[in-house]
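Handout, section B. The chain below has 339 residues.
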Amino acid sequence: MRRLGFMFGGLVMVLSAIESARGEDGWVVYPGGEGPGKGKHVVLISGDEEYRSEETMPQLGKILSRHHGFQCTVLFAIDPKDGTISPNVNNNIPGLEALKNADLMIIFTRFRDLPDEQMKHVVDYVESGRPVIGLRTATHAFNLSSGRAYPTYSWNHGESKGGFGRVVLGETWISHHGNHGSEATRGLIADGQENHPILRGIKSGDIFGPTDVYGVRLPLPDDSLPLVLGQVVAGMKPTDKPVEGPKNNPMMPIAWTKSFKTKDGKTGRAFCTTMGASQDFESAGLRRLLVNATYWAVGLEAKIPPSSNVEIVGQFKTSPFKFNGAVLGRKPSEHKLEQ
């Protein structure tokens, strides 16, 4: 019996070590440093099947860390069987407890069905009134199963008229406004917003991406401010001409700010863009938009440089946006910050 006890104890230690190793490898942390963002902690949450958020978010984290001083924790959809990044696993994003001491949540997920113990960290963060930035499919970030504890966060929740996306970010999933895969997006500055701090160093046409313009209901909620409009172009190149007709009259907002109210009356800042695929992120204009929005979200808008450093850090090889297009077999540690 004593021998069996030792064997059992040893097995528990081995399993605990394996689980610990998986936990440590379930996300990646980029240290803060010198720069305006020093002392601020940003948590970036990826997890979508189509637009390669698992590529966008580590690169955004690297830029914010290396060039601007923010500490960044990047989370991923993880296959619990082997600890690899797997966007089609829609019910597991380890490390969300990092939100407890976050100054900003940047989220780029799609139709996630997270268990209550993981979802609670997101809900607690939002209800604290701290700022939120949402990319692309964050408008429909969650699709929670019946019986989950936080149904109002689901993208199509009736009572909230669109869940987390509508209430916090300003819109839920509506439609593809441009033709998906054949009509790209050119960003034009909304009239009168040229001097908004989030748009510092950005002019019309600087933002471009091959993903299409999303449809939104016009006007956006009263507490929203459109900053960038999406011009639908007749092709997939920056030089392509605008599509003629109603798709560009009126144009849909593709980036805006919003304020949101918590249940106990706190007011939080939010910024949303319906762009963000890793191929979109090849646009320096979009990278600048998101870096500037990070400064703004945490109250550092006065420190946004005239031209933020948005140079790519390390290697950034993007994959085409499509379902089942993720590069499988990678672990979060493979996104470590190169020296």
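Note. Helices lie at 2-24, 53-68, 116-127, 163-169, 284-297. Compare this with the example in section A.
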